[in-house]
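Explain this record to help learners:
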Amino acid sequence: MRTIRVGNCSGFYGDRLTAMREMLEGGPLDYLTGDYLAELTMLILGRDRQKNPDTGYAKTFLRQVADCLSLARARHVRIVANAGGVNPGALAGAIRALDPTVRVAHVAGDDLLTGAFPGALTANAYLGAFGIAEALRSGADIVVTGRVTDASLTLGPAIAAFGWRRDEYDKLAAGIVAGHILECGTQATGGNFSGFATIDTSRPLGFPIAEIDDDGAVVITKHPGTGGAVTEDTVTAQLVYEIDSPRYLNPDVTARLDTIRLAAPEKDRVAICGVRGEAPPATTKIGITRLGGYRNTVSFVLTGLDIEAKAAWVREQFESGLGRRPETLVWDLIRTDRPDPGTQAEGAAVLHCHGKDADPDVVGRPFSGAAIELALASYPGFHVTGPPSGATPYGVFEAAYLPQGEVPHVVVLPDGVRVEVAAPGWERAGVSAGSGRPGRVVSADGVHAGPPASERGDVVHTGGLSTGDPHDRGVGDDTGSGMVPLGGRAVVDGGQRSHPTTTEPPNHPAPDGYRHHTRAPLGHLLHARSGDKAGTANLGIWIPAAHPHRLAAFRWLTRWLTADRLRTLLPESTPFPISLHPLPNLCALNIVIAGLLGDGVAASTRPDPQAKALGEWLRSRLADIPTELL
């Protein structure tokens, strides 16, 4: 049996600059990957390219390569990164300029800006892993890509090393799962982890490594002597991050996340078992960014008593004083004030006013200046957080879908030869993959666009979880298996539902079958990890691996937490459709709140535009939890 070790040194553009050297010096590796692209990053790199056509890639990656190229070659570690952004060819050229003897390949074809998306700043298809594999098989020392799926950065080396075929879905799915765990760097070793108090935080967190066998077996680990930990919980935290449904779609395979089992045979080693794969979807996602307009924000500080009255008065004054009202005006009152405050800061609340408009003059200096004009004529204690400022542009993200065979997938090998990579069986009749012909847009209706429902798993419009059995009482059964069939269904609730309340008759068991309950934060029972996909918030929750009654706690959770109850706990989710997807093998529940984040991170006016803290908010909410489960 052959095994490769694939490490990660970046989870985003701006991650720890020293990580590449740390990973190369920390222990043996065969491949080192780095993920530099997010929806917001594509917007940033697209604007860079507008200013200078020779840019559009992650410049920090080039700095890392300049520092570590000789070390990587001496240790025979090959590097794969999506740092090419919207200009992978330019990045490949810049690397060759560092050392003409280095063999650099790049993957292209994802950039569809000149095709079916006029007016877009960027339009990039999510390519798969077989182009990366082709580049590595050609002998490339470094492979840079534009927009590929994040997990493809890990799957590509496995395909190259083991020769996996396109129809070996279980192996491909295992590679995708390994890549999903690695793609966000230290989020798999304790970063952004609600159980952070249980791990070593005295040193910088180590970046994750996947040991992948030729039969698809995977172990997640990290270099010895680094901070953080690799446990079932840190791995689960990343598995439930930004995944949507249990059918995890990638261009090369659909990974069934509800088949994954975890085991921790040794410290800092977690085995990924049982992964099953299915055929890939017929379409691939196109990430489109556009300039949405201009924005500005004014923040008023309100101190002491009568906060609500002060906010109402200054809001009325400010809106009356605007020469032209912006197309969008959003007010947020953040109540950080406390009764009987011991410091002035503890007595202060902040009132934000966000203005957005297509005309920069409407939300420019006159907008923020209208606040300053109130300085001597408004509520007592008036002050703002900063001087008047001008308008800044913001972007919006949209998704569209094209048939895979209509998206070019091209590899430029180190010797300059261009190789077209065939799509996985979805080409149009008579048209080869990578032909460069303009594709037919399947859908381009904003952030809710997606593949047909038949490709995304069953959907039940109901108020409770179902496994398809009309007598089902929730996920799991009385045998304690905690399992549901692979056909287990998601629950989708369309929003605007009532919020029922539940009371317990004294001296009788509650409807959940437990007699005694304790009112406590949900975080005493469960972990959480949350994030964003365009305007959609993703919230994964799970029962910790060490919980003494883990399966019972999971069964209670999935029966108790309905879409309506979630709206009661997180009132800001009330207007939006909510989907709940059980992952019984992980004792986890993935929650998708469509539309909570509006037009995406670059346009959002929420204090937490990427929903990173949504899980911690949920964990802080009080609930009546069965006492024996705490």
Q: What stands out?
A: The chain has a mean pLDDT of 88. Residues 208 and 222 are 5 Å apart (CA to CA). Residues 288-395 form a domain with the Alpha-Beta Plaits fold (CATH 3.30.70). The chain is about 20% helix and 25% strand.
